């Protein structure tokens, strides 16, 4: 057999050597192929890696002059290591390297017989970072197991488990969907000799019910218990150092808490990783001996159930260098599935937006890279990161879902040394267009749908972003007014909704940071943003946000307010509809000497809560005029402690604004079209087509983007329960 493979490969090389210069080259890959084959459709290769090696060889022999295509047949391809491309694999502007799944090249129409976009997703070839586990064995009707004696094969541990393509939940208490509230918390600094202490012990005091979860666990099990604490916008996750049953306290260790976000008594938490917690369908637990236990969900049988666990942290790496970037590479009609996140023995320190965590697909020093009609799913980490020195690249019409952390990350965490706008090392001109990005935060609740760190001139447009525990879109990574390269980013025509779920605080539909001159946030529809404590905002200009235009946005049903500025400079908020927020409609926090923002030509409509939620709105330096305010319950709208006329006279703001019904067709049913434009014409409001927000294309793609009504109903239930508790 080996001689036959070598002979076939020799004939392939001989034919290649005798061919002058080919006009084009296609290499085919199929799960039934062999890497010793010629790579034709009749004799496909077995792996993408082998196809890349063939192309590298052809390039070295100067045998290429046309387009290069690697065509992958439907099937699952289990990766032994991440697929890696470098500058050596670059195509050209005229002849890019194209790696695509066989079938619909651009995803415009589902494959014949598929019927729906979901079916088309199933037809994509899958590059998988997972391994299939042995079959389940029955322990009892409600408990199965798998023996995994060679646990080192999985890195000594398992981070995530998927059964029949559905994410399982590590055994926890309380069960998923609920969280404990801390009774109190404190910290003891251990390393006090250093100018900046590096070691601390945190103490968390429990209620009797919470302590009861741990009582009775043997010491060996207690050593494996993990506590996950969600405090404000952060999450801290650690192994328990000790449990004081008598005083109902647990202790964890690590770096000292940031003074601006400690484990105070409004935090929420849960315990996980003990067999005693294994009590709900879909939960799993790995015993240190190598036995994996699983509680089956309704409808699952041993015969029809297959378990997969990820073993790779990354599935695709595109790594150029400063001298030779990876460039002109296209990926079409491919699914990347099953990436891993493993927490090490030190646990996770708090980090806003889970910023340091990696992604299933990572790009550095790359340009003119495009992903079209691809899928990324079942990740332990983020979906994709255009990180260092990436430019002129895009991800379009792709389906990113069931994400362990967040969706798309753009730019590095640190500004390139000495960089200024437009310098080569600044990540820029990344387009994220017409994607479905939803269901994230399963490993880190702090994951963001799309986040732009230190990067400029990027466009986030026409995306469906939903079902995350934290912010939908985050732009900028500088706190305050120091230099930032994050300029001229466009966040336009996105549908951003059902975020927060009452788990984290200080979050927004669109969240901005730092000097951002030229950045535009427009024509987005943002709704159902609900935080745990403070800060469930629709549009949120946070620390130092500067030079941002926010216009033609529809923002409704947010917990804290539709618009909030913590502090910033010269932001323009105009021609937006802010409607039916829960607690308040508008907020501002810090009073500064300069003009903080301008608030003109907006409609503020509400039927619950108050108009102004923070006193900063009354005292801050900003301009406001030609706005329409309407409270369905009363025409005596209060601006803080002032009546409307007192507000106008004392501040000089809203001189030409009105208290009037804007004339929506059915605001209670979230139909914000106008049946009468008489009043809005008085303030110069220009109606915009908010139905244009979200994905576009064929009807099946739009249908796939629709939010699950059961999830929406569950979100409403969460809000109702939280509001009742308040």
TrEMBL record:
Residues 429-602 form the Right handed beta helix domain. Keywords: Lyase. GO terms for molecular function: lyase activity. The keyword Lyase applies. It comes from the Bacteria. Residues 142-297 form the GH141-like insertion domain. Pfam families: Beta_helix, GH141_M. InterPro entries: Beta_helix, GH141_ins, PbH1, Pectin_lyas_fold, Pectin_lyase_fold/virulence. This is Parallel beta helix pectate lyase-like protein. It comes from Anseongella ginsenosidimutans.
